[in-house]
Model the fold of this input.
Amino acid sequence: MEKLDNIIEALRHDLAEAVEAVDRPYGDAVLTVSRTRVHDVLSGLKTRGFDLLLDIAGVDGLHLGGRERFEVVYILYSLRDDLRARVKVFVPEGDMTLPTATDLWQSANWAEREAYDMFGFNFEGHPNLVRILCHREFVGHALRKDYPMMKGQWATGTSDLRPDIERE
Amino acid sequence: MGVSEKGIPLTKHETGLITTRIEEVIRWGRKYSLWPLPFGTACCAIEFMAVASSVFDISRFGAELVRFSPRQSDLMIVAGTINYKLGPVLRRIYDQICEPKYVVSMGACACSGGFYDNYATIQGIDQIVPVDVFIPGCPPRPDAILSALLKLQETIDREPQMGPRRPITEHGKTR
Done:
């Protein structure tokens, strides 16, 4: 635990106002970070041993009445020190732009595509920000709380699986 | 050269000759040589493997020659969840099978979407392709698959073998 405390201390020292709040549930670290500084915090964590980005999660707080409607949560793991950290960013509905993390972790590529597919976050600088789970004719974002859960959408072509082939 | 029931040697003309209708021969052939194409997407496909292997042994019913190319098979077994993204793929593979072709919808997911009543899952593959036999279950027992095969053979038995198998309609077209 001490190790994680030291990392957070160093991070707060280097990136003064970037880390807005720190929570320590079950010995992990949850850092709430401002949207403009999220890339700095992520890169700071990476240089301090968090070499694995496990997942990027989206949260739609439409009915929760939180600070902003959306949240993006980066789930990190340090193989070196066996530590877990989560980085939380609030994202307003009107402007869903975030910096990409693909320059830090390759695993961010698909994770960000999934978050984009399900919620509509715009990860700026992502090399290929297209849908990954839903087909490309899908309209809307399925995991948003205002998307009708049972509303399916028909796909007309198979070009999702072979993007190099022109849509028939 | 064979002999008759009374032990009298058969003449050349009496040997190996049967009279029947060509349609009966085709029907007999089709019934007992279905070549399955497993379109397996979930746990139902594992159950199909059990049917194909020695304990249940689908070859007892002549349908053991599993092919993974639609051009070499005539029985598509859709075993598993089909989502909207996969729908056009399923339809295209069905279209590539030569006539006469048969479709078995195996398990709750393929038949009705199962418990996946959501934005991603097609609520029954009969919305995309015409289905001959539905097998309920999650997953169905191997016996149920064999039962479906027998049901399909009964269907083939009833159908005319010459000419188009079913009226060509808009049914089952990809939307």
